Amino acid sequence: MARRAPGYRIGVRRVARQAVNAMKIVRKLLFWLVVAPTAIVLAIQLFFFVQIWWWVDHNPESTSFMDRQLSILREKDPKTKLKHKWVPYDRVSNNLKRAIIAAEDSHFSEHEGIDWDAMQRAYEKNTKKGKVVAGGSTITQQLAKNLFLSGERSYLRKGQEVIITYMLEFLMDKERIFEIYLNVVEWGVGVFGAEAAAQHYFGVSAANLSTAQAARLAVMLPKPRFYDKNRGSSYLMRRTDLILRRMGAAELP
Questions:
Q1: Among 56, 77, 90, 99, which residue's Cβ finds the most Cβ atoms within 10 Å?
Q2: How far is 25 from 23, CA to CA, in rounded Å?
Q3: What is the sign, positive or negative, of the torsion defined by CA atoms of 109, 113, 116, 117?
Q4: Average pLDDT rounded to a whole number, residues 217-222
């Protein structure tokens, strides 16, 4: 048998080394393109889960949305403070609870966090408009957004919102979800929570809101800063009358 020339053996070893080096590069690329991003995403989800678990028995002192709004307001006045006071669930008028359910999420007590029919309608509306103009969000989804996310409208953010929503529904009962929502939702320029809203607009406590006052506050929720500055809006008055008629059928958790 003829012997291989020394140059041939050196060439084979060189090719083998190049192949090994190429595999190392591929593994590094896979790590940075797949493994590392996946680990980061899972770590973020774990953070959300642990934070929500803590809030089962502890009240949030602030939210992502509150912090962002405070930062914006302090650009104009560094001494600005938010109007916000936590009150227990039983110290919020049932009128307000029913009004919000009637206006924002009539199936709140029944669904598991997502109203898929509402999301489908929102998707069709967004497709028709060519941009995201509606979200079809439930009360739990709105809370998920307020607690952790930005006000940006995108399908990526919506996906994260859905994940957090299921975490909230898994760890908390409906009453706790609604209690936190009532205390952190935005109701005007620097106004957060039912107690601050009741005092800001009507000079009463959240426990003493009338049906008409409650319906008006519920109608303000989609655009609270706008209605804070445009309290005489004809739409606001018409929508308030509609919610007043629907409140009797609202089911509380």
A1: 99
A2: 5
A3: positive
A4: 95
Mean pLDDT score, 231-246: 94
Give rounded-to-5 percent helix, strand, coil for the chain. 70, 5, 30
Residue 90 tokens read as 């039983």
Residue length of the chain: 253
H or E element that contains 10: helix 6-30
Over range 234-252, report the average pLDDT: 93
- pLDDT > 90? residue 226: yes
pLDDT at 244 over 90: yes
pTM value? 0.83
Could you tell me which residues are beta bridge partners of residue 83?
191
Structure tokens at 209: 């809101």
Mean pLDDT across the stretch 68-94? 95
Q: How far apart are CA 167 and CA 231, in angstroms?
A: 36
Report yes or no: 171 and 133 within 8 Å, Cβ to Cβ: no
Indicate the pLDDT class of residue 19, thresholds 50, 70 and 90. Answer: low
- C-alpha distance from residue 118 to each of 38, 55, 111, 177, 239 (Å): 30, 28, 12, 20, 19
CA quadruple 232, 238, 240, 242: dihedral, nearest 10: 180
Alpha helices of the chain — where are they, by DSSP H?
6-30, 36-55, 64-76, 94-104, 116-129, 139-148, 155-171, 174-184, 194-202, 211-220, 224-229, 234-246
Strands of the chain (E only): list them: 83-84, 186-188, 191-192
User: With contact defined as beta carbons under 8 Å apart, do 93 and 206 qualify?
Assistant: yes
Rounded distance between C-alpha atoms, residue 124 and residue 121, angstroms: 5
The pLDDT of residue 116 is 80
